[in-house]
Amino acid sequence: MRKIAIFYAFLANLYALQIPLVPPEQDSFYLPPPNFELAPLGSILRVRPTPNKLVNICFTFEIKRSWQILYRSQNSVGKPTAIVMTIMEPYNSHPSRVLSYQTFQDSANINCSPSYGFQYGAPLSTITSQLDMRFLVPALKQGYYIISSDYEGFNSSFVAGRQSGNAVLDGVRAALQSQRTTGIESTAKVALWGYSGGSIASGWAACLQPTYAPELKQNLLGCALGGFVTNITATAEITDGGFFAGLIPLALHGLSNEYQEFKRVLNENMDPQHVDFFSQGSERCFAGGLHFFKSRSFFSGVNRTFPRGFDLLHDGTIGKIIQDNCVCHLDRTFLPQIPIFLYHGLFDEVVPILGPRHIFQQWCSWGIESLEFAEDLLTAHVGQQIVGAAAAWTWIENLFNGAKPIKGCEYTQRLNNLYFYPGVEQETKEYFLGFEFSILDYIFGGKAFDISVV
Prior knowledge:
The chain is α/β, with parallel strands linked by helices.
């Protein structure tokens, strides 16, 4: 019965494709107004109700109202930019409680932006944005406002750390200035949350906050990071030639969008016969990119895209830019000053567990005030997103309800973060256990429909 329901939900989404919705690359709302660069960081430049209702292909997604806000930010090298953020107001809303949820856009194309993919009528290519909306439901039911920014920016700079972190922090600033429109109080408390690609934006926001937005410390309660990407080279090495190989061209195009010198050196080192194929990495969203590039080898094997192999990632230009966008290479100036919760699966085949373990040891040695690491001994990347969310949401809700985070560092290995993380309520367990695990098999494996169309 559950799969039948999913099938009908899918048919409903196909019907939604008939509803006109202007893609971001053609939507003037996404473009900053003249002289926007003169506005302070976080300033609201434009506001509108979301053009269409927010939807989810798997269940009814009911909220009271939603808006899109264009706000001032800056990219990785300090140049002015503007970011679109979606704000969701639930029924029985609490204007003093805000969850900043960074979804995983994981693509280098503006038309894959969450603000677009969240909406009724968005193409099937943005399906992962709607799937990620499932994780917002517990917060919305409790009356939390949700803010979710297109933190990659108009250039879609996937894995560009500073760009993403700046956008998240400026999004919080904008939300706290939006009371006349949204009702959110300027003194509201805010928690950050992100998994996998979303952890890049959330993690960089936590690291940049002390220097980039010191005034937000009074608002930020903490940051939950799952599948935490601390070293993008490690992800390239473990995924090359495998199921998640598509992350490599998507990420390389993302950095090329942010750094022209990166793009130049990358193109100079590419096998000419692979150019057209590799270019698809700038056209496809996450799900379609995974399918299109599945099992391709970019740095290994006899028919690799880059003849230099993994050595290219250590090239003077390429290596420096990659290092500048890895949290693991930041110095103690960027030590988070807000409580941090890490959750990760031991068998993660996308983000090796050694990365989060290293950052835990590094931050603890530098004297972080509160860092809790919940390592799950049974799950890999996709599974931990689901079961670990129960622990993350419990940790976040505890902070909003006045519980004190742990002092210092605490590292715990558990068989399962859903069943054994302390304090997870039965309703939370049942909600996340109710996820249809095979949905991700459908999306990534193409069992329910022809994924090549996305």
